[in-house]
Amino acid sequence: MAVDGEKTAAGEASEATPLLQKAALFVSPQACQQHQLLLRCFSNLKQRTSKTAGLFKTEYDHEINSEVDPIARQSMMEERRWSIYVSRAVHRFSVWWALLPADPEIPGIESEKPYGHHGGWIWTRDQLPPLDVLMVLHALILHHKSFGEDCLRHKKMAQWNEGFPLQLASQCIDTDSLKYLCPESCKLNFESMTKLAWDNPDDAESVSIGCPRCQDQNVVPWTTRRRKGLADDSYQVCQSCKYVLGKTAFIVRKLRQDLHLLLDKGIPLPGTCWSVEDGHGTLAPNKAPNEFVKRYLMDTLLEETRPTNLFPDITQILELLGQTVVKQALPIVHDIFEHYLYVENSSCDLSAAVRRMLKSATAAQDIILSETEFHSPQMQTQYVDYLRGQGKGFWSRSPDLSEINLMDPIMWVWSTHLLTPHSYYEFFRRVGNGLPVDWQPPHSPKCRLCHTMRPPSFARRFFQGLVSLSAWKEFMEAAA
Predict the structure, then answer these.
(1) Segments making up each domain of the chain, as ranges
(2) pLDDT tens per residue across span 412-458
(3) Tally of CA atoms within 13 A in the half-sphere of 424 that contains its CB
(4) C-alpha distance from residue 470 to each of 199, 453, 459 (Å)
(5) Is 439 within 8 Å of 143 (Cβ atoms)?
């Protein structure tokens, strides 16, 4: 019976064995341990930054000084320092990312071809960025679909193929102090490339930004005592045209720029670069939603985002879209416009991604998993089962990815695999179904975008949009 049992087990595993061998090449125990070290380094960075007295002059913050309880005041001060630090890190990452080599041969929406292998750029030790920039890149890559879309839209598929420089980065981390110590060549390369300081706090206290209306440059501080800066929701007034500079104005400008990129260069809108073909997720420009926007929404959106609009409001634009399209078209609109709730030119809310990553890392920072816990046939089998279950929308161990539990070895293997996006993409196509699963939280029933576009009111449920149901059906039949 024992022999029969072994044969049965072997028979059940026969299908997964080649996949396990493939996975073993991508996710080694050493890589998982390097990833643990990296996240401990990030957690240490947050702790050191938030406790640095005088940093970003948070002691003068009006809201913090209004708090009577000294313990609560200290906690607010530390959170404020870290919040400003992350905002600066996202800006620094955006500058660095924009300067990375781009591939002009990547096709636009007309081709509808999946991505190919793009070379021409590889990670070297001298190219490692500062730790704060590396932290933002790491958080973005964990959001696999967003990272793939950014690489495709920004023509940086070499970064998709290269992934995260885990081994190079871990070699620069002191295992005792958890400090990131790079050679001088890294600092010289980054500062020459970006014109930014190597250390986040050493950068200027303000940034020059162009007014969306008159294009004149305005020097805007990162924050003020009354929280009127780039790290806050409201900035200031343009010194030339008195245009109100704030997050909503720059979100509207981002939308208008993306609309013109779609019209002029065929660059797909965010949220339209993934589709499911033959049951598998495919990274390629999706023509149907972009054509839908061009045919039915483009004129309205260009009118609402014109620079002469004194009070641009993305919320009003979203409400208008909710009235304009029929219910059947809302998923397409939602997938696109969920990327216009934040300023960054990315398919991922980078600040939120960093916060989410560090929340999971902090919860697991005292858990040091051994090499044997990552290296076992049972672990590899469970990992394949996990991907298969998530791809089908169920898995008994962790059906909800709203919280990433890094105390679970399987979550470590999965998260480490995500750092090699090209490999993870190909592996998930073999194992899973539908779009690849990543760190993106599941859709919330309290989604602000859903409630903005389609509030649960009696009148809205019976509102007849400008795009009639018959026109929607006609469009979908033509796009099929």
Answers:
(1) 29-242
(2) 999 999 999 999 999 998 888 888 989 988 777 677 777 776 655 43
(3) 27
(4) 57, 21, 21
(5) yes
